[in-house]
Amino acid sequence: MSRDVIGALARLLSPLAWSGPARSARKLYAFALAEQGSMLDLRLAAARTSSAARAAAYLRHADDEARHAQMFARRAAKLAGEAARPFVLPPLRADCERLFELLGERDFLAFVHVGEERARRQFEAYVTWFKGQARDQDAVLFETILVDERRHGRYTRELLLELVGEVEARKALRRVARWELGRRWLRAGRFVAERVYLVLTLALYVLAAPLALLVRLVRPIRPGLRAEGSARALPAPE
Predict the structure, then answer these.
(1) Among 57, 69, 112, 219, which one is most buried in terms of CB atoms within 10 A?
(2) Membrane-crossing residues (predicted)?
């Protein structure tokens, strides 16, 4: 997805995504989870790579992601407390996707670079929107994190070029962009399927209620019937 499309979508959806403290809190909490999950994958990459220099770079990146996760989580908790109906967000417990093992180091680097560049474009659009809404605290939060996002985008591209060269790097970037698009499509499909299943289940219960009532009216349960049947089933005493 091009830079213009990513930025335009972020600007277009900002009024909806950040409308009110409750929705903003949940959005920031989702970012916190994503940052924590990225931290776990980067730590695993540092343990698996054959290069000490790349391991050090992954660990520095992981430390940044851990810090970002806490920054997002703290702001999310504050906004959750300011909502019309205050609520408490659960503790951060992200999963490690083990992307280094799944993709290999070349495509892992390409994947991280694509993700960092996408996040940078989104965050830049959010900063512009927050400033226009006089939400200075949120604008400063994203501006602070953007400093690291830009650096992450640069170093991952440099390491990728160093690892495989320009031609293979471009191929890897295109490949992981397609892979990520397919993964997002599958996730969206699961999300929709879960909601459809829930709606259909609730509808089934609602439709079954009148039928159950009709059965009770037509064939009422007579008191003592079960007890009488149970008594017949008992063996006679010797």
Answers:
(1) 112
(2) 196-218
**pLDDT of the residue at 212:** 64
Buried residues in 133-158 as b, exposed as e (16+ CB within 10 A): eebeebbebbbebbebbeebbebbbe
Nearest to 176 by CA among 107, 119, 96: 107
* CB atoms near residue 177 (< 10 Å): 15
Query: Which CATH code of 3.20.20, 1.10.3470, 1.20.1260, 1.10.10 fits the domain covering 3-190?
Result: 1.20.1260
Question: What residues have CB less than 8 Å from 124, skipping those under 6 apart?
Answer: 7, 146
Q: Is 75 helix (H, G, I), strand (E, B) or coil?
A: helix
CA distance 54 to 106: 12
H or E element, residue 23: helix 20-48
